[in-house]
């Protein structure tokens, strides 16, 4: 077993487990978009970032790809981590503002402004469809093409693939395929229809540390400090 610190507590994990695997085992919620059980981790969306290290020697890593190490120090919900996740949500909103899943993430993390102009590409390049087609359907009908701003997902040479089985698995896993409830004629890029209350223990302790309820959303820790 590998022993390390997770949000200040000493925990143990199986060799080969990632930080995300361990967090899920201990009931800690880390948001993900490009991760799905049964598919190889990709680490593309960066929503699952956590902070590792101590003092000034800390850095952000994707928890779905970073394997636990002996003596590792991990914090899953520091102010730096929350700020990074909010920034990634803003970027994804500019790419696919009609995605219900991304809109729900914006509401959950209190993203109420959009500082990047919408591009409406309706694809966040999470690679879920490619990995599903390759690893589960064994078809390899689609893949990434080009780099940078020209990057896209398509069939080889943009022609109809004879390997495609029309199974629809790529659409099933796509986070941008389910349209937001506001419809295509919404007035704003961010609907915040499901906006939640700001996590309370983030300001009190510097990270979400409540282990008794849905982390950071009950307000109990702030009430206790006022007594």
Can you give a write-up of this model?
26% of the residues lie in helices and 12% in strands. It has 227 residues and is α+β, with helices and mostly antiparallel strands. It has 2 domains: 2-114 and 192-219, Ubiquitin-like (UB roll), CATH 3.10.20; 128-173, Alpha-Beta Plaits (2-Layer Sandwich). The chain has a 5-stranded mixed β-sheet, with helices on both faces. A hairpin with a 2-residue loop joins strand 1 and strand 2. The termini are far apart.
> What number is the mean pLDDT?
85
> Which consecutive residue ranges, at least 5 long each, have pLDDT under 50?
211-217, 219-227
N-to-C CA distance: 41 Å
Instruction: Report the count of strand segments.
Output: 7
What is the structure about, briefly put?
With 227 residues, the protein is an alpha+beta fold. Helix content is 26%, strand content 12%. The strands form two sheets. Strands 2-1-5-3-4 form a five-stranded mixed beta sheet, with helices on both faces. Strands 6-7 form a two-stranded antiparallel sheet.
């Amino acid at each position: 077993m590998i022993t390390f610190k997770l949000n200040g507590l000493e925990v143990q994990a199986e060799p080969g487990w990632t930080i995300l695997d361990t967090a899920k085992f201990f009931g800690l919620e880390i948001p993900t978009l490009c991760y799905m059980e049964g598919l190889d981790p990709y680490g593309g969306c960066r929503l699952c970032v956590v902070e590792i290290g101590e003092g000034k020697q800390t850095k952000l890593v994707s928890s779905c790809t970073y394997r636990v190490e002996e003596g590792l120090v991990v914090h899953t919900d520091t102010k730096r981590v929350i700020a990074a996740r909010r920034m990634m949500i803003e970027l994804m909103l500019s790419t696919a503002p009609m995605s219900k899943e991304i809109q729900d993430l914006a509401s959950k993390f209190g993203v109420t402004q959009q500082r990047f102009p919408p591009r409406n590409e309706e694809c966040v390049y999470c690679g879920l469809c490619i990995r599903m087609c390759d690893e589960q359907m064994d078809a390899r009908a689609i893949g990434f093409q080009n780099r940078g701003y020209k990057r896209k997902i398509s069939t080889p040479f943009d022609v109809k693939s004879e390997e495609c089985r029309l199974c629809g698995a790529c659409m099933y896993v796509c986070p941008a395929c389910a349209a937001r409830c506001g419809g295509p004629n919404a007035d704003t890029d961010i609907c915040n229809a499901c906006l939640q209350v700001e996590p309370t223990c983030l300001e009190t302790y510097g990270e979400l540390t409540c282990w008794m309820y849905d982390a950071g959303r009950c307000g109990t820790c702030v009430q206790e400090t006022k007594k």
